[in-house]
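Before going further, it is useful to explain how the protein records used in this thesis are read. An example of such a record is reproduced below.

***
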Amino acid sequence: MATTKILIVDDEVDILDLLAYNLEKEGFKVERAMDGEMAIEMATSFRPDMILLDIMMPKMDGIETCRRIREIPGLEGIYVVFLTARSEEYSELAGFEVGGDDYIAKPIKPRVLMSRLKAILRRKSGTTDEEEGEVLRVHDLEIVKDEYVVRKGGETITLPRKEFDLLFFLASKPGKVYRRERLLEKVWGDVFVVDRTIDVHVRKLREKIGESYIVTIKGVGYKFLAE
């Protein structure tokens, strides 16, 4: 099995040293960056499986860094975990807006972080080979699981991991209504995120694939348009 590669991005050397020590002790291959510009260069050359990304940094903050990384072909599937001392809801939502997958608050406790990262990686690799190659064809969409892309009318639309996971889950059972709590459980698992995270991801999906596919059930949740 290939070694999992993790890029740590933080402007505090002590945090970089702490995280790198604990990750390498667990067998991960680690690279470091101290600002957003360096992170983008390292993400392109190192091709990590996961990025631990601080939000408050000089030159370019973590939100903008994540947004730019998501625009680079071939890097859409990287799992981005934000590290931040800011606990305000708006910063969490901003992170999910640009394609972040998870959110861990500082101060970081190494044992808790390792447990969390291992849980994330288990979920990330928890599909079978058959599931990895699965393709959904519904309405005029072709949703390709192992490529994180949607094909519509000859156009290929690449989606960040969580947007894709949400779309795939909804589209796998057209017409079934899912409450927000259920979607959070199935798509985000044990990651703590606010209910509005679902609304943000649905809005982003509608912007990319069209308004009509995902239907809002007022006061309840969402469903994918039935055949």
Observations:
- Residues 110-124 form the longest helix (15 residues).
- The longest strand covers residues 79-84.
- The radius of gyration is 18 Å.
- The chain has two domains: 5-124, 129-224.
